[in-house]
């Protein structure tokens, strides 16, 4: 197969056989977020490059190595979004959300783009669900956002997932920590990769997030930020833990979590699965109190998280979780002859207007082939139309699961189909209960 007929490396097609799973998961995500007061926001897939440099941080792997950046025809530097928080914050500033009643709670689902080595759960085009809560400084806001993430994971059937939390402090208490890190890594500078040698003076915390095996191994014994928290940051972190304890949410304090983006302050957290190997983090987030002001808006303390949908799907697959499949076709109308085909067109149009999922032959198959196709697409009921059925204004409705047939009137088809579908659902429920 020629390259033009292959998906670009690091991208993936979601075929109809799997799209219902994505629809179910995404629906649960938005539904759960709304329970917490979040409404959906949609932002452009690309932004001015400076949006990400100012927010994500120009010493991060994302900005230094992974962004898809290009000049448009007007000579402007444009970047496909590597994450969604920066674009949401830009929108909140531009459209005045951060000047409205606070907190502002928004959620989103969208594609992101990073030039990384493709592997399971980490593609160059990937999809995220996330939330941003702008204007909430208190530790119970952190706990609520964490609980929202947990409830989303619970709602889609994720099992054996663990919550890890940490605090990376504020810019003030991090000064001492940065100094300790600089001394530690300076003593081992010869073992650092070239990129991290450049980071040593500018932002040594970014070395902790380096994907180089040598740097990652060295970082294991580096000082931990939680030992350098100021009194306010320590009190905030204790408050977060108290609210999680009050809700009965289990967690582990992991002092090595720093997250890979520069805008984080104080609370950071990850939900980790043991079912998908090295790429075990399915959700990560935290507080970013200085980001909105850094991007030109007012000083509004905020926080949020991002959840990788591809990784979530891998976990569900590893757990053999069965996601509910919606009924694809309520009724398939098989036809014999031109008059029946015309009548089927009329009936299908009216039934679809009444909210039913209805199909009929549009290929020119014989009756036997039509019935095989109806079975293949999972039609709940079938009905055969010919000249005699049209003349009598009645036909037989066949339940494809039980084989039972009942006579129904074509002039009152919508009501009779509705009754049949409800009876089938009730019978299935009774069978389950029995």
Question: What this model shows, in words?
Answer:
With 434 residues, this protein is of the alpha+beta class. It has 2 domains: 3-173 and 229-318, 2-Layer Sandwich (BirA Bifunctional Protein, domain 2); 329-424, Rossmann fold, CATH 3.40.50.800. It is built from 15 helices and 16 strands. The chain has helices at residues 16-35, 49-55, 61-66, 85-94, 139-155, 174-186, 194-202, 213-219, 231-247, 291-294, 309-318, 338-353, 367-376, 387-392, 413-433; strands spanning 39-40, 46-48, 69-71, 77-80, 104-113, 125-134, 161-167, 252-253, 265-273, 281-287, 302-308, 329-335, 358-360, 379-385, 394-399, 405-409. It has an 8-stranded mixed β-sheet. It has a 5-stranded mixed β-sheet with strand order 13-12-14-15-16, with helices on both faces. A hairpin with a 5-residue loop joins strand 3 (69-71) and strand 4 (77-80). Helix 1 packs antiparallel against helix 5 (139-155). The longest helix has 21 residues, at 413-433.
List key phrases describing it.
single chain; 434 residues; alpha+beta; BirA Bifunctional Protein, domain 2; Rossmann fold; 8-stranded mixed sheet; 5-stranded mixed sheet; 16 strands; 40% helix; 21% strand
Concise overview:
This protein has 15 helices and 16 strands. With 434 residues, it is of the alpha+beta class. α5 packs parallel to α9 (231-247).
Describe the secondary structure blueprint for this structure.
Elements: H1 16-35, E1 39-40, E2 46-48, H2 49-55, H3 61-66, E3 69-71, E4 77-80, H4 85-94, E5 104-113, E6 125-134, H5 139-155, E7 161-167, H6 174-186, H7 194-202, H8 213-219, H9 231-247, E8 252-253, E9 265-273, E10 281-287, H10 291-294, E11 302-308, H11 309-318, E12 329-335, H12 338-353, E13 358-360, H13 367-376, E14 379-385, H14 387-392, E15 394-399, E16 405-409, H15 413-433
Parallel strand pairs: 1-5, 7-8, 12-13, 12-14
Antiparallel strand pairs: 2-4, 3-4, 5-6, 6-11, 7-9, 9-10, 10-11, 14-15, 15-16
Helix pairs in contact: 1-5, 5-9
